[in-house]
């Protein structure tokens, strides 16, 4: 299948990395003969909430581990906050907060004590300001009231928020969160989603990987879609979704007449059923449809333009459902 390249993909393909919070070029990772990540050109604009999407096993976590210097790429290069990695890891990583593969804290310590312990092993942290920074991070994620509760008594949502608090002990320009809502109930998911939005409002760039399409649609400004180690598409969420075809749906008691009007306007794949007619808009402006129906005296009791969901887009790009192992 062919598709239009986004502006970001054009820049990546030409070798122009620009001033992005995250920029990779042909980033590749092989484990023996298995290619886990295949020539990925990832571009995350500064200030974006970038949803890194893909089924489990699609290469998201491996990519994130390469970005953070936890594993070395087999080929390719990348920059964080404009600095090449791993050459400038000592300069850039203190500006990056991360949560990779779930939180890990001591269950017998309180939330506050866990963060104090975490802060103590950071050679960039000032021990004179530990208490203020720990309480500030707990307050930022809404856990200050539960700061002295043992970690083992925390709910899953609280544990995820504590892990994010750990990433906020120092000012961060970039936050990399790997599946931050994994295993959470709806309330915990909402808590983390709202937190991500507030972090972006404060000026941080957030890269959040997820296999939950509906969650990403609610919080992200940009997306990248991974499948079997490849980045299929990326860009502003509206631009990526626009690749799919919008369909006009007319509710009427004369669906055959409505279908005739839709075909006359140039809509394609027009179908009529009981009480409804619909077709693919293509280049036809949606506002022209109702005008044409009224002009032909076809009664309209409902009209909606249905745009493809992210799952529809994934299926159109891969021919597979989203819940595949990759």
What's the quick description here?
By secondary structure, the chain is α/β, with parallel strands linked by helices. The chain has helices spanning 7-13, 60-67, 89-92, 111-120, 130-140, 156-167, 186-201, 213-219, 237-241, 255-265, 287-295, 310-318; strands at 20-31, 34-40, 43-45, 49-53, 75-80, 83-85, 96-99, 174-178, 205-210, 222-227, 230-236, 247-251, 268-273, 276-280, 302-306. The strands form three sheets. It has a six-stranded mixed beta sheet with strand order 7-8-9-4-10-11, with helices on both faces. Strands 1, 2, 3, 5 and 6 form a five-stranded antiparallel beta sheet that branches. Strands 13-14-12-15 form a four-stranded antiparallel beta sheet, with helices on one face.
What does this structure look like?
The protein is of the alpha/beta class and 326 residues long. The chain folds into two domains: 20-241, P-loop containing nucleotide triphosphate hydrolases (Rossmann fold, 3-Layer(aba) Sandwich), CATH 3.40.50.300; 247-306, 2-Layer Sandwich (Alpha-Beta Plaits). Helices cover 33% and strands 26% of the residues. The protein has twelve helices and 15 strands. The strands form three sheets. Strands 7-8-9-4-10-11 form a six-stranded mixed sheet, sandwiched between helices. Strands 1, 2, 3, 5 and 6 form a five-stranded antiparallel sheet that branches. A four-stranded antiparallel sheet has the order 13-14-12-15, covered by helices on one side. Strand 13 and strand 14 form a beta hairpin. The longest helix has 16 residues, at 186-201. The radius of gyration is 24 Å and the shape is elongated. The protein starts with 6 loop residues before the first helix and ends in an 8-residue tail after the last helix. 40% of the residues are buried. The model is unreliable at 1-5 and 7-15 (pLDDT under 50).
